[in-house]
Specification:
alpha/beta; 248 residues; 7-stranded parallel β-sheet
Length: 248
């Protein structure tokens, strides 16, 4: 599917920004949504063909207003997410709750606002950004990891329930990606990102586009994400030792 209307959330930076620019370059009519109006204006300056809309993904009314304003969507790219470091027992509750509201409930709200119309029209593509962290939780990322695990579960049920409707669902689970958020967390605590550099955002976007040409809900961009999941599943003790070493 190309050339229709694409809605990209979290388009002010990182994977959302890169997705919006790629889709515009490929001929899509792109609506870029974010809570950061300054970032949206900068995006529009870079690519005037992109329409920008303010949206707070954790606010149901804001999401509903966005859906009403833009009309039918052919591809939804939901990249809005946030992460703050904090221990499982010590992270302030307001931070923990904010991460869940944005990462998980935001996913539920945008899907419920956009997908029913896709089903009614019998076509559409839904790209939900999760994370390898949803499969491999690490220290100081309990809120983020658990919210992304919930996104994975939601995506699986959505995929099951949308079979036969003409929709294509993808759940994207990259490892570390070189985004502003990744760089912020890595600077705060390199162990939280396993002392690694992030992969280029273009690597992830390319993997998403390729995935839409074949079957399969989950997409693991890069060279290590899928291998990491398989290692944890089949050799949990070995994996545990590796994780212990790399996140210290």
């Amino acid at each position: 599917m190309t050339g229709g209307t694409a809605l990209v959330t979290g388009a002010g930076s990182g994977l959302g920004e890169a997705s919006a620019l790629r889709l515009a370059a490929d001929g899509w009519n792109v609506v870029a949504a974010d809570v950061d109006d300054v970032a949206l204006e900068a995006l529009r300056d870079r690519e005037p063909r992109i329409k920008v809309e303010h949206c707070d993904i954790q606010d149901a009314d804001s999401v509903a207003q966005l859906a009403k304003a833009i009309g039918p969507v052919d591809r939804l790219v939901h990249a809005a997410a946030v992460s703050y470091l904090g221990s499982a027992l010590g992270q302030p509750r307001e931070e923990f709750d904010a991460i869940w509201r944005i990462n998980f409930l935001g996913t539920v709200q945008i899907v419920r606002a956009i997908v029913p119309d896709m089903i009614e029209r019998g076509r559409g593509e839904v790209v939900l950004y999760s994370s390898l962290g949803g499969w491999v939780p690490a220290r100081k990322l309990s809120a983020y990891a658990s919210s992304k695990a919930a996104v994975n579960a939601f995506a699986e049920v959505l995929d099951q329930e949308c079979r036969g409707t003409g929709l294509t669902i993808r759940c994207i689970c990259p490892s570390q990606v070189d985004t502003p958020q990744f760089r912020r967390i890595s600077a705060q605590d390199p162990a939280a990102t396993a002392h690694r550099e992030g992969m280029p955002v273009a690597t992830v976007i390319d993997a998403v586009e390729r995935s839409l040409e074949r079957k399969g809900l989950y997409v693991f961009p890069g060279t290590t994400a899928k291998a990491t999941v398989l290692l944890k599943r089949h050799f949990p003790r070995t994996f545990g030792k590796i994780l212990e070493r790399e996140t210290r």
